[in-house]
Amino acid sequence: MSQGAPESPMSNAAVQKAAEGVLAGDERKGCAGRLLPFLGPAFVASVAYVDPGNFATNIQAGARFGYMLIWVIVASNLMAMLIQTLSAKLGIATGSNLAEVCRDRLPRWMVWTMWVLAELVAMATDLAEFLGAAVGLQLLFHIPLLWGGIITAFATFVILGLEHRGFRPLEAVIAVMVGVIALCYVAETLLGRPDWGAIGRATVMPRFDGPESVVLASGILGATVMPHVIFLHSALTQGRVVTRHPDLLKRLVRFEIADIVLAMGLAGFVNAAMLIMAASTFHAQGHSGVATIEEAHRTLTPLLGPLSSAFFGVSLLAAGLSSSAVGTMAGQVIMQGFLKHKIPLWIRRGVTMAPSIVVIAIGLDPTQVLIASQVVLSFGVPFALAPLVLFTSDRSLMGVLVNGKATTVAAWAVTSVIVSLNLYIIYKAITGG
Q: What is the CATH architecture assignment of 39-431?
């Protein structure tokens, strides 16, 4: 685990022992049983791909253009799998997370610059997640946003308190929340009765319909990389299962890739389901102007009945609570990794949470705040992606887990596409286009 995450020796040792047995060739368990000790880190990381920011983007895309942009979600998901694989590999190969490797191998001025940017990214991330959870509580229980933010902060501390029992309980809670989001959207999708033929065609036939569709596609694809979760995933794998034997390291990475494919596949399904729900209800029934979470919730009830809006509210609340916990966890990993100093846990978590509570207390418009937070996240993308690709391509650092040439080329290509799109998002936000 990361330096910022206290461990329970019994819980963590049990996972380590089970994993060592599988890596050593224990065939007594079935395929699922052998995979189980390695599942978890990617499910925690996958929360970043189903956070409240994704709700607004996917709903707007589906309401405005129907099923047309589903292919963008598929492409984004494949990119996410590659990037999260590199992050997981870095933690396994080096025993350090990305922030720690940056601190040890980059010039001091660059480390301080990256730390400030990474902290701003973590705060902007938590801002979006806290707002999402607060809006979820408001939609479901009519709780004022400020009290919703305070409840979210308390719930975040409770969820992260599970770290004291080892990484398994925390991973299980996050996985359950992701499962709740997925189940809610299965129900939403079935209620909406989508056109599966049109969905299939849109998945394999990339196309646009005017400048607005390109902007929305940029929003979906540009949000593929949440910088904070790149730092976090490397921390989740850095000490979870430890081995230095070259053959066992390669086998360990294969199990981690399976974890990533399952978790990111589920996150991709949820994002696609969000867009499908919006396309089959709002777009199909002439409500293409729906663009915000609140509008979507209000519009669902007359179209599909109160049960659909309840599913929507529950999924938003689960996304907000789980992603706020993950965002706060990333904040403490970033602070501990870049600074190296021991900082009280409540300070590390409080620094990440505080801006969210302040913004909610001031009463700023949630949608505008979400947009602003995404712009801040866009600034942080190059400072997480570029070092990740550089480090994982360095044989002296990665050993047998160094990227192959094809992986390096693909990683730089993905990095270029995502950074370009994030710069485009920043440009559009600044110019008001």
A: Up-down Bundle (1.20)
